[in-house]
Amino acid sequence: MKRTIFFAICSLFISIFSFGQTSTEQFETESHSSASFTDNGVIFNILSHVGTFDIQANYPGTGWNGTANDNRYIDNSASAQADASFSIKTTSNLFKVNRFWIFLSNTSLNQNVAGTLTITGKLSGTTKFTQTKTTGFATGLGTTNGYTLIDMTNLNGQNYSNIVIDQLQVTLGGAFTYGGFDSFTWVKDSGIVLAANEIKSQKSKLSIYPNPTHGSFIINSNENGKAEIYDQTGKIVKSLEVKQGENREDISELPTGTYLIQTSSGSYKIIKN
Questions:
Q1: What is the pTM of this model?
Q2: Which Pfam families does this entry report, sorted A to Z (predicted)?
């Protein structure tokens, strides 16, 4: 019986945590000067932090789709400057980053200069990872039209492609003042960002908030019962007694990650930051 329950839980985790749709946005159908784009049904906003980044479509043949030149991409051609920085952020589905291509140069489009690139992933404003790349950039047009591949499965020797985020920030450093961002490959996570950071069951029997949490959270239930918290391996890490009404709980002792709360009314995902 325990074996059956364990495999059922593992199957549930596979469906909740592993399901995803890989998609590559090449920006070819996006509008010039747009500060947002839509791919695989998800709307991403382009947030400019230093300089102005948006969709560029005025210079055909200056992009890169991973195998050939293309026509549209994100850049800051009108405001190239030191420490240029932008983010792509969604307020709907969470996502993971697989890879992207980026053109880096100074304001005169000279690529043979010394610069850095910092890539940061955030979830609900909290930094989940950040890495600065200092070498290995294209120094001329070559076979990739001047674009450098940023592979998140091996960025500075680490794999960041499985980290769920809602914001990817790119920051230029050193002599790099211009950036062209193209062929963005990402994975659509099954998690949904809900209003007010709250997850509710379809039958409205139970709600959990805030979510994500740094440790403390509230389970609001209209029935008495038990709840068990599982990690991503299917192991029970904590058991709770849930009473009708407001239940104040805490998982500060658990490592950062995503957990499953199993109750009689359903399964609920909670993120510990």
A1: 0.66
A2: Por_Secre_tail (PF18962)
